[in-house]
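User: Please predict structures.

Assistant: First:
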Amino acid sequence: MYAYIKGTVELVGPEYIVVECNGIGYQILTPNPFVFSGKKGKELTIYTYQHVREDLIALYGFETQLEKKMFKKLISVSGIGPKGAMAILAFGEPEQVVRAIENEDEKFLTKFPGVGKKTARQMILDLKGKLEDILPESLEAEPGPVKKKTIAAEQAYGEELEEALLALAALGYSERELRKISTQLGKEKMTTDQYIKRALQMLMKQ
């Protein structure tokens, strides 16, 4: 299993990035690939998790060890696979997920695509009290605003909005849900990553 890959970001897509290391291009699925848009051509360390099943070998990657640990906790829950865990992490901060689980906030958890009441309850049953190794300090802290990651804007914002909508569709949001927010999103000029963050906040409130 690969613990991490240190290499150059060569390509950023709606669901994955390609990192070149020693002449080999690794396709790595990430929660929000567009956070890497401003880092193309730069050498980065991506913390990875290799998922293997009979019909698939996939490499998942994260900016931090914290995200990787949260991903592994989420896929240990019955009913949550790698794709569902990635959709949860794409919303933003692991701190929010930890607090929701510890506070038994099913309403918050069911806002994620693919997470119904049954899965939210399972997340709480399986993980409550078992997340101190991830974020012990967050269990006592009050919820705060979502932190936003900024990247350099290299493309026209129309293209960036289109990329953001493609990424959200890949996470499981329907065309109907995305149509509801696309007009409002298009009123502002933002980077792809910022569009995704803003869109997820809007979708979670619906």
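Second:
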Amino acid sequence: MTETVAALTAAVAGHVRALRTARGWSLDELAGRSGVSKGMVVQIEAARTNPSVGTLVRIADAFGVTIARLLEPAEERTVRISDAESAPQLWRGSEGGFGRLLRGMNDPSFVELWEWRFAAGERHTSENHMPGTREVLHVLEGTLTLTVDGVDYTAAAGQTIDFLADRAHTYTNATAEDTRLMMIAIIPNTEWDRRSP
């Protein structure tokens, strides 16, 4: 497990540094565009921290890439098969729940495939994503409450929710049973400067 975290931290460091320098951006420019502090960007590029999913989202959005692009190994293959257990868990709930990024693609469109499990009472709040981002959630087990713009939407096993994720949203398991779902995130293929209105 420690080896996997170290490999992911190193991959993120290399990709962030390469993407930033390829654009000719300073550390301050990336910090401004992403809304992530310059100190955190320095820590990430030096592979001295394991950034949160929120931090990765902000940096990926600034570059106009998916989180998966920041995590991917250097070599890209025509066909790739991977085990769910080896996918990076980017969110861990207090009661054992998790969110893991199973796979992401950057070409020709930006798409991410996630697996989420929420134990009883767990919740995850996500910041707004890049304008135009959509998420499609399919509930496999249990019941999920999605809150968007202060309104709750509830979906049970076998139901699918499709929504605009470019605003803050929260996933909650308000039941006594585990909730499991698959999520596809479709992200616009463009850079996003959070300083812009």
